Amino acid sequence: MEIIKLKGVIKNYPWGGYRLKQYGKSSDDIMAESWELSVHQDGFSIVDSGKYKGQSLKEYLENNNVLGNKTELNIMIKYIDTKAPTSVQVHPNDDYALKVEKQSGKTEMWYIMDALEGSYVFYGVNRKITTAELKERIKNNTILEVLNKVETKKGDSFLLEAGTIHAIGPGNLICEIQQNSNLTYRLYDYNRRDKFGKLRELHIDKAMEVVKTNPNTVFNLNIEKENCREIGSCKYFETTHFTSKDELYLFTKENYHMINFLDGKGKIENLEYVKGDTFLVPANYGTYKIIGECEFLRTISKL
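The structure assignment produced for this chain is given below.
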């Protein structure tokens, strides 16, 4: 068993910017997202260390016992840069998604890596609302008036259970941890057009079947522990924020670990890391050491 470094898949959505270059990402175009850890059919991340360097993560996992007693990698991790706002959207839960789309739903978490002054996200609705009113507000372009607008700063975290209306405003750099799903139902997209001049597709009927119409008011889970703080937890994953000044020892048993370095440089075991690097630590690896002054997220899969 070995720890592997990963290379993300770049997605050049029209609302993206160029700040992911600060995290070692590169593209000839804008960079909206880097799919750092993904075995989703819409984009496989790549092994970037060891004898399997250059192989897709999907192929690597098919031929190496990394996940322990898990049958599949059911988590996806992205870095996101928003120069313009994303669409207002919602994701279905597992029951609906499996029945209608024949794939899993999508619960996700945001960790704000950085935020420009005035940055914000939309996180649920700001009052109880009916689906009829939501539909009407989509038609007359006033849906933003009933969304819960939250100003963002570095270190904030948001857990978005399936069904929560949300959107990311401009100026945010985000690490997104989510179920391995790319299901998104758009409710509103500022009347933006695609590269062919057509209005981007909305999915209003499906969205109305899954959307939560009560407010979400709780965010910034922050459970302080020694050298770390728990920032996100649900039935699918648990994410913890760490800072280290010198060296730190972590341990895997039956669950694999996913490590995202947000700052610093040093070594994770015998592999060098810098800001923006992502690593997968196999289940049952045992103790591993992180050396160097750094800040990182550790995500553990629960299912």
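Interim note for the steering committee: The two ends are 21 Å apart (CA to CA). The first helix runs from residue 57 to 63.
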